[in-house]
Amino acid sequence: MAAVTSDVEVEVRRPRRSVVAGVLLIVWVAAYFGLRGIDTLVLGGQDTTALHRWLTDHRDDVGQGNGFFGAIRVAVDQVVVLLQDVISQPSFDRPVPVIGWLGVIAIAAYCAWAFGNWKVAVLTAAGLGFVGLQGLWQQSMDTLALTIAAVLLSLLVAIPLGIWAGLSDRAFKVATLVLDLMQTLPTFVYLAPLTLFFAIGPAAATIATLIYAAPPAVRLTAHAIRSVPPESVEAARSLGSTGGQTLLKVLLPMSRSTVVVGINQTIMAALSMVTVAALIDAPGLGQTVLKALQTLDVGVAFNAGLAIVVLAIVLDRVTTAAGDRPWRTASVRRKVLLGAGAVAVLVAVWFSRTYVWAAEFPSVEVGSRIATVTTDVTNWLQDVFGGFTYGVRDVVTNALLNPLEALLTGSPWWLVSVVVVALAAVLGGWRGAAPAAVCLGLLVATGVWHDSMVTLASTLLATVVVVAVGLALGVWAGRNRRVDVWIRPVLDAGQTMPPFVYLVPFLALFGTSRFTAIAAAVVFAVPVTTKIVADGIKAVPVATVEAANSVGSSSWQVISKVQLPVARRAITLAVNQGLIYVLSMVVVGGLVGAGALGYDVSAGFAQSDLYGKGLAAGLAIVLLGVLLDRVTQAAARRTHNYEGDKR
């Protein structure tokens, strides 16, 4: 009997990753009901582990003496104190600073005019005048002094590193790896370890700020240098220019606008960090907001938060205008006007050094009125809409947050670890699974596993909302140019505001709770997610969309079958950035009832016997950030490779 053979190849299809992930989650939930409460590693709020106590006992042995770190602390303190003496604090046996409010406003407006234009100068004068009318002049100048000190020190390091990375491929690769890690870490993370070396105070706050603010300047400077057309560089070299001459005469001038954008981003990051650094005794507006949040005084918090926003807008507009200004020699008329303006500034400075009225900002009750009105509005909102807002909070908390948190905190730590590593492997392959396993193992070692899972639950829930809102707004803006034009400035403004500011309105609406931090995190993270999605949708080839329209596809079919699949990599990046932003805000939300890791870090600063636990919580935040970042990036890389294989 003849054998029957066949040349037909049978294709074995692998199950979709979403199906495998769904099965894993179902298995996890089923196992949870059988293993609930076992090996959950719960640690009370005042309880510590041997590691925490060891860190607390040995913190003075690391760098708070008179050695290398002590010398750095003294040097940075002197820079900060010098700037405070000049613009904010009484100094040199005078009851007022070296330069009073009139001189500061005159200098700031003149710089805005010289580097930008007269409109920005008016905005600068009006903005600084407004914070003075709020009764927050000295606090605002303290914040500005710390910001200036941190930015100057940061740029002294960041610009040379950016130039080096722009000129050297090897340096660029190393810098990219380091900067990617630094930009995934929330602001809280930088505070705890630096207090270990530099003690709590302005020096540690300034150093934390300059480290946090440096990455944008390094990255954008390197990008600008590497983006200069090779023809321009070759032309300079053919004329006999040395490497230094090529850098100074060709590369830096042609990179000016992008470098200024990097400086702008550094300033915004520094202002954001300076306010959060109030937790480690940084003076300024952050202290006012922090104390108001701790006492639930929404009116005072709003008044100080408004001053922070005004400072952010002024600094952003000045640096943006400086970057937009054409690179050309000033006309004779402008030189004359600038000279006359310089004389006027000197006169204003002389007045501010001679007369008390020009040195001390007049006492005006605008700030107290703003605080009173805000408090009244808050009480009215709570009376009228409190039933609704608190109802929304309770429904979301009971229906979504509590079950998710119970699943993460009630499951054995080893079960959570196995499921997370398996999900990471499904979504990102070994590139996702390996860092997930390492991070989860280290999370267990920190001794704050339970609090880490509480923070992770809030982060995941907020991220789901952020992605949903960001996708909707991003697709809308990406498909409609008019919408993009209107919404883009709002999104840009949202990204200039420090995290503290977002807590205030939601504290008024929802009170102290985990939901307050989640709501603030959603609003904080939506702008960056929306912009990335919109850019991804706009990058879809027009020919591809027109081909879909030509065969009669509806708008929804074009979106779901063409634009979203083609923009999948951008969407994955949006999820990645949304996660990082949400984690940053959820941690800060520990100040308004979110608890968990954010509370552990702040408690470590406030109570000396909990310092080690706060340091471990800071490390746990780093590990969560790295875990979420590595898994989402691995998923994006695997998605891109899969699409390439299909093509």
Descriptive key words:
647 residues, mainly alpha, 28 helices, globular, 0% strand
Provide an overview of this structure:
- The chain has 647 residues and is mainly alpha-helical.
- The chain is built from 28 helices and no strands.
- It has helices at 17-35, 50-57, 68-87, 101-115, 118-133, 137-167, 169-182, 187-198, 202-227, 230-238, 243-254, 256-276, 285-294, 298-324, 332-354, 356-359, 366-410, 413-428, 430-446, 449-479, 481-496, 499-510, 514-538, 542-550, 555-566, 568-588, 596-606, 611-646.
- α7 crosses α9, α13 (285-294) packs parallel to α22 and α23 (514-538) packs antiparallel against α26 (568-588).
- The longest helix is centred in the middle third of the chain and has 45 residues, at 366-410.
Strand percent estimate:
under 5%
What does the radius of gyration come to? 27 Å
Integer average pLDDT: 83
Shape annotation: globular
Which regions are unreliable across 5 or more consecutive residues at pLDDT < 50? 1-6
N/C terminus separation: 45 Å
Question: What is this entry, summarized?
Answer:
By secondary structure, this protein is mainly α.
